[in-house]
Design brief:
The complex is a heterodimer of chains A (354) and B (366).
Chain A (H helix, E strand, L loop, with lengths): L5 E11 L5 E12 L4 E5 L6 H8 L7 E11 L5 E3 L5 H7 L4 E4 L13 H11 L10 H14 L4 H4 L9 H12 L6 E5 L7 H18 L2 E6 L2 H7 L2 E6 L2 E7 H6 L4 H8 L49 E4 L7 E3 L24
Parallel strand pairs in A: 3-8, 3-9, 6-7, 7-8
Antiparallel strand pairs in A: 1-2, 1-4, 4-5, 9-10, 10-12, 11-12
Chain B lengths: L7 H9 L6 H10 L1 H26 L4 H11 L4 H11 L8 H13 L14 H36 L4 H15 L2 H15 L5 H4 L13 H38 L2 H8 L4 H39 L4 H10 L3 H29 L1 H9 L1
Helix pairs in contact in B: 1-2, 3-6, 3-15, 4-5, 7-8, 7-11, 7-13, 7-15, 8-11, 9-11, 9-13, 11-13, 12-13, 13-14, 13-15, 14-15, 15-16
The chains are: A alpha/beta (354), B mainly alpha (366).
Organism (chain A): Glycomyces paridis
InterPro entries (chain A): AAA+_ATPase, ABC_Ni/Peptide_Import, ABC_transporter-like_ATP-bd, ABC_transporter-like_CS, Oligopep_ABC_C, P-loop_NTPase
Subcellular location (chain A): Cell membrane
Chain lengths: 354, 366
Amino acid sequence: MTEPILSVRDLSIAYRTGRKESVTAVSGIDLDLYEGQSLALVGESGCGKTTLGLGLLRLLPNLGEITSGSLTYRLKDGSTQDLLAMKKEQLRRFRWNEAAMVFQGAMNAFNPVIRIIDHFADTLRDHDCGDGKKWTKAAVEARAGELLETVRLDPDRVLQSYPHELSGGMKQRALIALAIALDPKVLVLDEPTTALDLLTQRSIVQQLHELRAKFGFTMVFITHDLGLAAELADRVATMYAGSIIETGSARDIFYTPKHPYTAGLINAVMPVKGDRPALESIPGFPPSLKAMPSGCAFHPRCEFATAACQGERVPLELLTERPQAMDHAVACLHHDRVRLDRKHNDSPKETSRV
Amino acid sequence: MTAPTAPPPQQRAAAAAPPGRTASGVMRRVWTSYAFRRILQSVFVIWLVSTITFLLMHFMPGDPIEIMAGRLNSAGMSHDQALATAANIVNYDPDASVWAQYLDFLKGLVTLDMGNSLTSPSKTVFDHVMEYLPWTLFAVGAGIVLATVIGLSIGMAAAYRRGSAFDHAMTSIGSFLTGVPNYILIAAVVVIGYTVLGILPFLDMRGRVTAGVEPGFDPVFFGDALYHAILPIIAFAFTATGSFLLNMKAATTEVLTEDYVTVARARGLKPGRISRSYVGRNAMLPVIPQVALQMGTLVGGSIVIEQILDYPGVGQMLMSAISDRDYPVVQAAVIILATSVVIASLIVDLVLVKIDPRIKTEGQDA
């Protein structure tokens, strides 16, 4: 078994809410990511997906802080490094070169007062990779043009444009092109298709498939769109209230979910084919970070909950052991009682978007 | 001030020939260009100010010719002779209709011939004003530059260190400078520095230059002029620094939360580049128009400052012209002051187009 490209151990992230107070947004995450894999982080708004994504690159806003754990990356040169031990300059060089991120709402990802080509120039020049090659204007133009063509944008039209002259879909593509400019090993995508219309979503997803096949980067994408997860991921991790509560191959998660919350999410998706059953929603609301339930955080909303669920925090339990961290693991005391309510007679790939 | 709306000629030109390399196409591009429209708007504002000034002067009680004639009369001239001499000195025909006078006035405005000063009839008004205006523009301009450099950099630094002791101290100073009028602050500087501590050679610093220093393009003259202008410059910089500082801090704080700054960090750009072309450039955008606004306020406020510091600029000139009932000078001074503010704001707007590409597109879409 090869070494994972990213190995997360016991990662916790807190946000300061006052002088001495803070809330824990992400707690005790353990995750191994292998080269070429595509992992989807799914969950409701506020479950800590984006915080975890930002944490993976140490990009948390000022009030956020990684309180414990380690983030070990295997770099391009083969060495392994703990991201949390990196100094400022080392971290700067690591970002975008080893791991890049495509952000939620590419609308505002570009500096409004400079041209698209300047974004490429700044990125290429500040990383001075390319074997000591000087990034002249012509060199930048050639490289940026090549990248834009891989995401099917017309370089002549886009390079000299200002961000406000591009549509949402074009900006998202341009951002993806920018993200792969330094050929990173890991790409974190935070809701890459939110705020785009269906056709544009479709073609972005197509693009990501192609790029992954071509460049072979490892992908972590954050979404609340199960359809997208089914389409792009080979592994899925469900998050609830700041913890991963179930993880497994896409097949495990969509056909035999073992956590009542994951099952609830899938039951809340309208199938495209067949009868239109009444959609089931999960009763109640996600807990506030300030008043987290004891034991399993999901127990107040869970139909299977017993007194035992309120006691200790429930750890992930391995159900099947498969190589390359494709094992199915769940944090539920009653996982053997969980079944999908209705039999999906179509594959999850054909379910509609949430 | 509303921008002039697109008039019929543009539509006709567009209908006659498609926009392109034709003569009318060029005309159309000039017409729709932002700079052209903005200049047209400035000319309109200057015209409006001039006309209002003309009307005010015209309908104000007290005929300048009567006043001059009265002065000459009491100096021993006969009444009719005094009237004739006075009418010769002013640049308009007192017997013509208001319209004729107005046209005459506009013609004078365009040719920079605004008559002669009543108090020193041998000098044209233009020459008279030009003797004072550069000194005020120099002091105000230097004050604005000083305030911009200090205000923007400290404001930005405070936003980067939000919540720190530095931030609290600078924000308090900024509020203090904005809140307290600059003439009170500079009076306090003079009183404390000169009267109480005795370290500020205020008496030597009054006026434009030290007696004996000849005007010319040499360091001695410039050094001396600067020495005499230091107090006015500081006075002008006070309020502007406070307001630039507070505005820049607010703007930077907001820009720092923008996605493109987070993305720039994620892209591993050098911190210097991020603060310059990602944070600084965007945070400056809302602050720059304030420079033009401050310019207007300061030139207007120069009347008080120059009086307090005994700096012979256009403010002092205006004060004495008003008390001498020197109408042509007052009229010209008001028009020139307004014009300089309009031009300052025009320059600021044209600069803004250079750094914010979005403005241009909006103008063309209109």
